[in-house]
Each structure stands twice: as C-alpha cells, then as structure tokens.
Design goal:
Chain B: Keywords: 4Fe-4S, Iron, Iron-sulfur, Metal-binding, Repeat. The complex is a heterodimer. Chain A is α+β, with helices and mostly antiparallel strands. Helices cover about 50% and strands about 10% of the residues of chain A. Chain A is built from seven helices and four strands, in the order ααααβααβββα. Classes of the chains: A alpha+beta, B alpha+beta.
C-alpha cells in the first residue's frame, strides 16, 4: 500500500499549522536557555513528537544551534523524533524482562516491522519504543501494544500481533471499498 | 614562572597553565586525547592524563590542575598507569580497529598511546560495542565515522571558537553518543566550506571531507 502521495498533500497544511502553533507556544517562554527543556516538553505534549521544523524554531527562539537543541533532546528518553504510530508498541527492557530476553522481543518487532526502536513505519501504523518496566514483571517478557499488556512474549506472538492488526486493517479497507460514495 | 618537580626533574612553567601543559611543554609525555593547548576550561573527558601530585589522596587529571610553585608530580606510578590502561581499553572497546584502512594510520594518538602504555589495540577482556551505521554522510561536505570517533569533543570546541555557535554537537547518550550536525542550516555554505577546522583538528580522522573518506 502506498500512501505517500496523499500524505504529501496532507503534509503541507500540516506543516504550516505546526509552525503557527509552535510559534504561539514559544510566546509563552522567554529566550533564556533554562527554558529549553520545558519548551520541548510543551511541544511534545501537544504534537506527541519533536518535528525537525519545531526543533529549528526552538533553536531560533533561544538563540542556539539546531544541533545543540537536538543534542539536548536526544539525551533524554522522553523525547521522540518521529510521530507515534496508530498502534504504538512498547517493549519492556526492565530488569525482569531483560533477564527473560526482552531484547530478543524488541529485535523481533524491529525486524518484523523494518524499523528501529524510536521509529515509526512509513504507513504510520506502528511505532516501537523501549520502556523500562511497565509494572507486571511476573509476565516477563512484556510488551504493551495499544495500551494492552502482552505478557509472556515470544517471537511467535510478535508475528501473531502484527498479523492480527494487518487482518483487521484489511477487513476495514474491504468494508470501505464496499461503501462507495463515502470519501476515504 | 613557576617551578615544579616532575618525576624528580625540576621544570619551569608559565603562570596559570595546567600541569599537563607544563609537562608537555617540557617534553614529558602524558597520554591525553581531549586537551587543546590554551583551553581555559578543558572538558576533562578522556580520562587519560592522570598524574599523582604530592598531597593529593588520589591521582588527578593533570589538565584540570594548575601548575603551582613547589608542586611535586609523578606521571608514571603503577596507580596512574592502571587508570590509564583501563580508560584506554574502554575507549578501544568502542573503536573500530581497522588501522590498515584508516586515514589516521601511523599518526593516530590511539596507536601512540597503545605503544606508550604497552596495551594492545584490541583489548580482549572487554566486549566490543560498535555503532550502526558506521558512517554518517548527512553533511554535504563531511563524512563522520562514529566508530573511529573517541568523542574527545575537539571538533565542537574549534567549531565554537570559529563560529561562536557550534554547528555540531554531541547527540544521544552512553554507547550511542555521536557527533551530529542535525538541523543545522547551510551546511554546504561558506561557513563550513571555508573552515573545515573540525577536519584538521580531528586526531583520529573520524571527521573527513567526502573525497578524503578513503585514503
């Protein structure tokens, strides 16, 4: 499936809206360096990630280089640089999950979806994030997909979860095709 | 001028310079990677330039201590060498030892330090952590090799000196730390093209011009 054309078309007004919104947010902060992290947090709270344009605007506002803003932001796990997917996947790498092979589960998701930790698939369906403990160590290794806890993860379950969403999506697509007149 | 005693040898040094600089100026070699002559506040990040100073309980980083009159310094004690060897092995555990194909071969400070400390370039006891991908070619003029880089920060320092505002920075954290030009505008413009100070300063040729990538 290729959404690139429609996404590009939708992308332009999005970008302008983003720039306008970020500019409005920046007005709430003076240009002191100590505001850098609060600004980034504010932007991420709203947009769920830090877009390159937003990073540039923050750099200009504070009067430092864009690379420096990026350097600070990448130091902290809380900031992300890709929009989250419709189905965010969080793989736990806390102590218990680590012991039970959480890194193998992460690798399985990464390979299955063709993206790395912190990235989003091009169709915006999935994103992968590593987290440290979701509070149910007895079920290790654990992944959280769409807020649903998936305990006792195994490579076969990774396949199953991704396949499940794909089937669901195909079903929705088919239903849409059967309802002409309804714009997508 | 101050007079201090290093390894039982009396040396003279200008007022206000560091013990490291004083020793280097007098031909006494102390392994170091992140220090540049004249730095007012050195990063003290490479953890190589340890010395013992009389009156100090533990070895100290010589780049961060000013040379003072009557100071007694030893650069070659067991404890100092132990710290330096460990620091060096840790650095090498994230370094791609591929000297044959590296443009820094034979003028590389890591090779010099390995010989000096009598430590092999491939320390076997530590796990190797290499970064992926092993080259970043986002910059229009420069290629960056994260697995050669030992994160001394000299490039960022000279870039800041030249441009007031560095056009590069440390990004990410821990084993993932890299030098990044992310988001900087006009990287192909004259500010970079006519400067390239980062390439000249890089001791390990982790930052090279695109045509210099393979020598």
């Amino acid at each position: 499936m290729n959404y690139s054309a429609s996404e590009e078309e939708a992308g332009l007004p999005d970008k302008i809206a983003l720039e306008r919104d970020v500019a409005a947010r920046l007005k709430g902060f003076d240009n002191h360096r100590r505001n850098l992290i609060p600004i980034l947090q504010d932007i991420q709270d709203h947009f769920l990630y830090l877009a390159p344009e937003a990073i540039l605007m923050v750099a200009e506002h504070i009067g430092i280089g864009a690379s420096e803003v990026y350097g600070v932001a990448t130091f902290y796990n809380q900031f992300r640089f890709h929009p989250p997917g419709r189905h965010p996947i969080k793989v736990c790498l806390g102590t218990a999950c680590h012991v039970r092979g959480g890194d193998i589960i992460l690798e399985n998701f990464e390979r299955k979806l063709g993206i790395s930790d912190g990235e989003t698939t091009t169709d915006r369906e999935f994103s992968i994030e590593r987290v440290a403990c979701v509070g149910c160590c007895a079920l290790a290794p654990v992944a959280v997909v769409d807020e649903n806890i998936q305990g006792h993860m195994a490579p076969s379950k990774v396949e199953g979860i991704v396949l499940g969403y794909k089937i669901e999506r195909d079903r929705i697509d088919r239903e849409r095709e059967n309802e002409p007149g309804e714009p997508a | 001028m101050v007079r201090l005693v290093v390894n039982d040898l009396e040396i003279e040094a200008e007022d206000g310079i560091s013990v490291l600089e004083a020793c280097l100026n007098n031909g006494i070699y102390i392994p170091n990677l992140c220090f540049i002559n004249g730095m007012s506040s050195p990063p003290v990040s490479c953890r190589m330039c340890f010395v013992e100073i009389e009156g100090e309980a533990r070895p100290v980083s010589s780049c961060a201590v000013k040379a003072t009159d009557g100071m007694k310094v030893r650069t070659d004690t067991e404890q100092v060498r132990g710290l330096q060897r460990t620091a060096f092995q840790l650095l090498m555990s994230v370094h791609d030892v591929d000297c044959g194909r590296c443009p820094a071969n034979k003028r590389c400070p890591l090779q010099r330090i390995a010989v000096f400390l009598k430590v092999p370039l491939r320390p076997g006891r530590l796990e190797k952590h290499l970064k992926n991908p092993d080259v970043d070619n986002v910059h229009p003029l420069i290629d960056y090799y994260p697995n050669r880089c030992m994160l001394c920060g000299k490039c960022i320092f000279v870039c800041r000196e030249k441009h007031g505002q560095p056009r590069m920075t440390f990004a990410k954290r821990g084993f993932e730390t890299v030098i990044s030009f992310y988001g900087e505008k006009d990287l192909s413009g004259p500010a970079c093209k006519e400067c390239l100070a980062c390439i000249d300063i890089c001791p390990v040729r982790a930052i090279v011009t695109k045509d210099q990538a393979v020598e």
